[in-house]
Amino acid sequence: MLSCKELYEHLASGKELTRIQKLQYPMHLFMCHNCKKIASQFKTINSSFKKVVTKRMEKASEDKISELEKSVWEEVERKIS
Ligand SMILES: [Zn+2]
Hints:
elongated; 0% strand; single chain
């Protein structure tokens, strides 16, 4: 079964899941309240972040956006752990 740690790594760093893990993912969220909550928070953060980036895309370079994205994820990981 997909572990909470594996699921978190997938959400936080975009680490690819194996085919079996992809099948286990929704089952894990169904059974694990904590991961369900975290997955929903990541979804919110991702969509909010995309909105901000899209708005400012014309002014910022790709490198700056990547840099910003990285610092946001570091902040999120620091707050969650
Ligand atoms: Zn879990």
